[in-house]
Structures are given as C-alpha cells and as structure tokens.
Design brief:
Elements lengths: L1 H20 L13 E11 L7 E12 L4 E6 L13 E8 L3 E9 L17 E7 L5 E8 L4 E9 L4
Antiparallel strand pairs: 1-2, 1-8, 2-3, 3-4, 4-5, 5-6, 6-7, 7-8
Amino acid sequence: MRSVWIIVIFAVISLILVMGCSDDIVLPSDSVISGSYEGTYIVTEDYGSSQAKENIQLIVFEFIDSSSTYIMRIDTEKDFDSSFSVCRVDGKFLFTEGVTLLQLHSLPDELAGQDACDSKFNPEGLFTLIKSGSSDSLRLTQFDNAAKVFKEIRIAKVAAE
C-alpha cells in the first residue's frame, strides 16, 4: 500500500513540474508556408448530393509570412475556366487549428479579363491544412454545412528561379 502512495505522490509532483514549466518550452514553428504556389481551387456546390456541381479554377496563391498576408488570383498563364468567375482576393492569414483566411479585398481579376466576379465562393474563414513534410504542397479544405459547399485549395510551391 505504501508503494502505491509513493507512486501517486511521484506522479502528482511530476505533473505539477511539467505544467509549471510548460510556458518555458519554445518549440520551433512548423507553420512556415511562405512562398508562391500554383494549383487548383475547387468549389463543389450541393456537396454530398446527387446534384453536386464541381467548379475548378487554376490559381496562383502566395503566402507572405513576414506580414501574414496572402493573395489568390486566377492563373492566366494556363487555360482557365472563364465561366467560373473566381475573384482575385487578398488578406491576412493566421494559424489556429488550421489556417484562417481573413479576406481584406475581393476584386475581378483584370489579368483574366474579368469585369465582374462572384464573391460568394471566395476562400474565407477556417480551413483545414494538410501539408507535405517539406511544405512543397498544401491542401486547404473547408465545408460550409449551411450552404452545402465544399471548398478545396490544392497548391504546390513554385520552384525558386
């Protein structure tokens, strides 16, 4: 019985020490994702139903860690879907339990020849982040249950020149 009490006391003391020192522990951030990326922005309307409609747009996405800003625009150097009018968006991003995109501006993409765009599909809010070990490819996903819309950003880092 005495050995059980010693183990319990030792466990409690260890827990107190770990909790008291946890504020002193600084781990290197694995959240650095800065750079230019190319890929696709996929928006699926009526997600999960038999009438689901998938819209795909080729995009260029840039994360600037020093200012925590992002920019997404249509990749006009490749064939793109002119009927899916994704806006050129920019704003701030922050890491929470994923990546939160806080949109500041939403404009028609002049390089894509747009004079109007539909902002209802802009990437905004909390996205789940899945990244490769080297952060060369990122996948950000979001499901809006109320609107039954699934948004997915699949991008790969552009090689430095």
